[in-house]
Structures are given as C-alpha cells and as structure tokens.
Design brief:
The structure is a homotetramer.
Chain A lengths: L10 E2 L5 H18 L4 E6 L4 E6 L6 H16 L3 H9 L19 E6 L2 E9 L3 H16 L1
Parallel strand pairs in A: 1-5
Antiparallel strand pairs in A: 2-3, 2-5, 4-5
Helix pairs in contact in A: 1-4
Amino acid sequence: MTTQVVAPPLAYGPPISLEAASRVAEAARAHAQANGWAMVIAVTDAGGHLVLLLRMDHAAHGSVEVAQRKAATAAAFKRTTKGFEETLATGGATLRLLSMHNAILMDGGVPLIENGKLIGAIGVSGMHPTQDGQTAEAGARVVNG
Amino acid sequence: MTTQVVAPPLAYGPPISLEAASRVAEAARAHAQANGWAMVIAVTDAGGHLVLLLRMDHAAHGSVEVAQRKAATAAAFKRTTKGFEETLATGGATLRLLSMHNAILMDGGVPLIENGKLIGAIGVSGMHPTQDGQTAEAGARVVNG
Amino acid sequence: MTTQVVAPPLAYGPPISLEAASRVAEAARAHAQANGWAMVIAVTDAGGHLVLLLRMDHAAHGSVEVAQRKAATAAAFKRTTKGFEETLATGGATLRLLSMHNAILMDGGVPLIENGKLIGAIGVSGMHPTQDGQTAEAGARVVNG
Amino acid sequence: MTTQVVAPPLAYGPPISLEAASRVAEAARAHAQANGWAMVIAVTDAGGHLVLLLRMDHAAHGSVEVAQRKAATAAAFKRTTKGFEETLATGGATLRLLSMHNAILMDGGVPLIENGKLIGAIGVSGMHPTQDGQTAEAGARVVNG
C-alpha cells in the first residue's frame, strides 16, 4: 500500500515588479512578432491585478479582456489555463468548469513563479489558443526559467 | 390507478447562527486539514448571504468566489450542487443548465437543514470537486445529522 | 525654499495568514460585542480577496457586501476608507470620488501593515460608520500595533 | 441677427499604434518619475479599449481600474475628465453626472488627437487628481502637440 502524498501548495509571493513584467512581456512579444502574430499580452500580480498590458497593432480589441482573464485565472487558481482547457476537453462531468465564471478555460495563461512563490501571471490572446499558450510560455520562461 | 405523491417542498427557515456556522465550518476544516487540503469554506444563510467564510493558508484566491457561489447555489435551489453536476454530465439538453448564471454546477455545495427547514448552506472549493464535496458534507453533517 | 519630500509608497507584502486574520477579526468582534453591536467583519489579503468573513447574529445581510468592499477599498488604495469619507465631506470637487466605483467612501476599512508592508485589510459594517471605523481599528491594532 | 456657429464634432480616427501609445506612456511615466509619483498609466484606442497599461512599482492596484476608466471616459465622450470634474464641482443639477455609470468624473483622462481626429486617450491614476491630470497632459502632448 502506498501513502498518498499531497504536494505542499504553492504560496503567493510579493507582486512582480514592472521591470520584470516588462521583460516577460517583451519575450512574449518577440515570440509573437517572429511568427507574425498580432496579440495582446497581459501581466498581472499575484492578486490578478494588471501590472502591464500591451496590444500589438491590429490585434482584435476583444483580445484585451481575454488576455487579462487568462492571466487573472492563472493567478487565481495557481495553474495554467491550458490545464483547464485539457480537462474540459474530456467532456462529461468536466463541463461543470464552464459554470466557474471567474475562470477562462483556454490555453494562454501561465503563472509566474519566483523562489517557489507565485508572483504574477501572464495571459496572451489573439491567435489560436495553442499559439497563445506558446507565446505565454515564451514570456513566462523569463521568470520561471 | 395510483395516486401521484409530490413531496412537500422544503421550506426556508430562520437564518443559521454564527455559532452553528462556526461548528459547520470547523468540521469541514478539520476534514480538509486531515487530508492536507488548502480550501476555502463558506457558510451562507437561507438567503444565500455569507455568515462565515474562511480561506485556509495557501488556498487559491479564485476559490473564494467559487466556494461562495457553491453555498449560494445550494441555498438558492435547495439542493446539492453535486446534483446539478451529475445532471449536466449526462449531456444533451442538460447543457441548458449552463445558462443559469446564478448556479454553479460543481460538487461542493450542500444545504443545511434543521427541523426540516433549510437554514443555510455550505460551499467548499480548493481541490477536486469530489474532494470539495466530501469536505462540504463533513461540515454539513454537524447540522444535517 | 523647502524641498517637497514625497514619502516612499507603501509596498504590498505577502498575504496575511488565516491565523493572523482570525486574531484581527476576534479583536474586532470583541469590541463589537462589548458594545452590543451586530456587525459583519471582513479581512482580505493585499489583493483584496477574502481571507475571513464573519457575520454576527442579527447583522443585516446588506452589511456583508459593505464590509467586504470597505476592506477591499483599503487594500486597493492603501488607505483608510475614513480618509475618503472625510475628503468627500468637504464637498465641491471631491464629489468626483463618488464616480470611483471600486471604492466605498465610508469609515470602517483599515489597511493591515506588518514590517512596513500592506498584508491585508479589515472592513466592518453594521452600525454607524464611526462605530464601524472604531471596530475596524480595534481589529487592526492586533497587526498594526 | 448673428449666425450661431456650431463647431464640427470631433471625428473618431484610426486607432493609435502601439508605438505611439508607448511614446505617450513613456512621457507620462517620465513626468511621474521626476516627481517621485507611483502611478498607473493607461492608453486606449478611440473605442476605449486598452492599447497599453503600465503600473509603476508600488502604485495602488485600485488605480488600475481608475486609470483605465479615465482613458475610456475621455475617448467615450471626446473630452477631458477634468471638464467633467469641474462641471460636477458646481453642484446642483450637475450631480446628475454621477448617474452616468460609464464616466469617471475625475481629472486624469485626456483625449489623444491627431490630424483633428480622436485616435485614443490616456488615463492616469495614483496621486491627487490634479497631479494625475498633469501627468496625463505630459503624455498627451506627445501626440496632441
């Protein structure tokens, strides 16, 4: 018989600085630009409040809210929104996630973790969710390593 | 010919006291702590208004809204949110439930019933919905017996 | 000619623990109980998300939202809501504050500060705003000293 | 008999580019930094949708919504929010402005006008509204000349 081990939960840390948020957003933007993608990139603190948002030229303005909500969801639930998307895709009971109004269930939101603490999150929107997710990860790597 | 019997509808009773809400929440917290789960526990009155809410250390802050809505849904519709979740999981026409914006369709919300009257509800969020539901039931048993 | 010195702004710190929030709320509740006041007491983290809320028996349920918003306002703007109330009372241009929808301009919200950082806030509602403010201060002293 | 001349209404133009929005925001930030002010600076397009937002370190997170609403109000009504504030300050019937929920009546929101067309707006929040307004003007001058 194995003992079930529960991982220690991820703690919320101090808010990400504007300087760090700028480096995260720039890495995401560089990834987007290299691919010719017009995107909105949002970085929030651990509380889900914006620290930086930029909309590349010709990105749809509907993506502003989506990018913000992806970052806020990643901060609020301490996980990637890709995880939510994949769970939802299995169908059946997981449709319940759609009734959680403070979560967007779409790839593109990634927590930012420093010294083992969540200090913020990045959210990206504008292309296919998979591309949004890649771009968010490109930004997150600046902090998450 | 049989007579169709409709159960008398559950009446709303007087609001749960803070003392009783505290005992409910403590039982839920003890269950969570014994399992190493970081959770948000909410207790509302029959009107769906908070009487007590506590967020255990390191629980995701997104769970605050989810726990509240689970309790409020259980009070508003006089049923467990697990019931809604199970109905939704059958698919088809039951997807209509997702358009009921004042209901969260996810295990973890349980009515509190005393002397045959609904006096409040408990909502729990933070882990898998099944674990949230177990924890809510552990709290509800203090009142529901 | 004097040099105008701008005080270094108050930093946001790590979230208040449930244990500390409980001590804050208990001190506020003791103050309320000693005066025979039925109140709602809310404690949030630095991001304005609830850590603890309790409604004393017979407190009006409308006070649940008011107490939460007082705490959230104190965290969001790093100041007491009494300050907002006093500014508004001077009339004239200060009426502009009423158009700030994310602020409640009523005594009873106080930041919680530890080691020079804002780690949360307390909000109290249920009686006259002055009494709400006194009760919030009674709670805040546990952390603020 | 004189002829009453009505000025041609200000037309909405094409959306401000991210490059121009960055220059506007940087000028505002330089003004804030020179004064030691921690502020949130938002730039929207003509539709009131964010193009760029940055929160300087230690700016209150409540200022995020306020800065956004100042910019959005300036774009939505094609005027400075200072104008609304001054009208409100005259009292009496002007209190009606407070019932316009899509307007914040507080200095710090300024339209951005290029070739006689409104292409966006800047909103600043974090200090006294007069200082917010000065900072927004410092940014707006980059475009408005």
